[in-house]
Each structure stands twice: as C-alpha cells, then as structure tokens.
Design a protein that fits this description.
By secondary structure, the chain is mostly helical. It has a single domain, classed as AmiS/UreI transporter (Serine Threonine Protein Phosphatase 5, Tetratricopeptide repeat, Alpha Horseshoe), CATH 1.25.40. The protein is about 70% helix and about 0% strand. The longest helix is centred in the first third of the chain and has 25 residues.
C-alpha cells in the first residue's frame, strides 16, 4: 500500500495548493515576484511525476495474475498525466483550456474502473466525486464556473478523497 499512499498524500497536497489558489488565498503576487501559480504548478508537476512513477512501479513489480492492482496503474496514469500537464501549463503561463479539455477524458474514462472498486463504497464514491471535480475544472477553464467554486470543490477533494484515506489506513480503520 506504500506507493499508493504516496500518490494520495502528494497528489492531495497538489490539489490542496490548487484549491488555495482558486480560493484566492495567497493568489496575489508580491511586488517583483512571479505569480503564486508558478510554485503551485511545480507541486502539480511533482504530483504528476510521482503518479506516473508509481504507475510504472505497479506495472513492473506486480504481475497481473498475482495482483489485480496492476489495473490500478492505468488509472494512476490518467491522473499522473493530468497533473503533469496542469503543472507545466501553470509554470509556462499557457492557456488552461487545453488542461480543461484533458480533464474531460480524465473525468469520464476512469468510470470504466468502477468495477475494480466494487468492494469499496469509499473508493467508488471517490471515483464518482473525481468526475465532478474534473468536469468542474473544464467548466472553470472555459469561464462557465467561478474560480472560487472550483476552489471549494478542490478543497473538498483534497480533504475527503486524498487526505482522509491514508489517515484512516494509518489509524487501522476499515474503509467501507
């Protein structure tokens, strides 16, 4: 579970910093400084790389017939590429609508993994919540949803889908 725990924590931190930015907390650059979106972008790049590395690790180390978590590697790949693209777009001050476009398949295609999580209400609900989150990203990049609303969605995502899962696991509590 350790590699997946890293994905949850590091990606959760990336989502948290994105949420803070979109909520407008620390979103204004001090005089003579670069936009705060730049370090937020670097955090997202790191999260994307960690996701991709963990996905590769799971693929290489765990044979499919012995461990169905190999199927998880593909799902992690979706999120890894998304966070890498998001971070680079933020660092390089690029048009975020491309990231919004990438958020559409990142929202919808992972639903095909829903049977993978059929034994866990928690992970099924997380997957469904991520659909809402990624579609909200698309709407925001096209000006159809206010940035603060996305910030609230991202904060809920960070807390309830990224931070609480590893905390529950560390505490030895069962996830429904």
């Amino acid at each position: 579970m350790a590699p997946i725990t890293m994905v949850f924590i590091i990606t959760g931190l990336a989502v948290f910093t994105q949420a803070m930015f979109f909520l407008g907390i620390g979103a204004s650059a001090e005089e003579g400084k670069k936009s705060p979106i730049v370090p937020v972008g670097y955090i997202s790049v790191i999260a994307g790389i960690v996701n991709l590395v963990v996905g590769i690790y799971v693929t290489v180390v765990r044979p499919l017939d012995a461990d169905p978590s190999l199927l998880l590697a593909g799902l992690i790949g979706f999120y890894g590429l998304f966070f890498l693209a998001l971070g680079l777009a933020e660092i390089l001050d690029m048009d975020l609508r491309v990231v919004g476009n990438l958020a559409i398949p990142t929202a919808i295609l992972p639903l095909f993994w829903i049977n993978f999580f059929s034994g866990s209400t928690t992970f099924t609900l997380i997957l469904i919540w991520w659909v809402v989150t990624f579609l909200a990203i698309t709407l925001t990049t096209y000006g159809k949803l206010q940035a603060r609303v996305l910030g609230i969605i991202l904060m809920l995502t960070a807390i309830f889908t990224f931070f609480l899962v590893p905390v529950f696991l560390v505490m030895g509590w069962n996830l429904p």
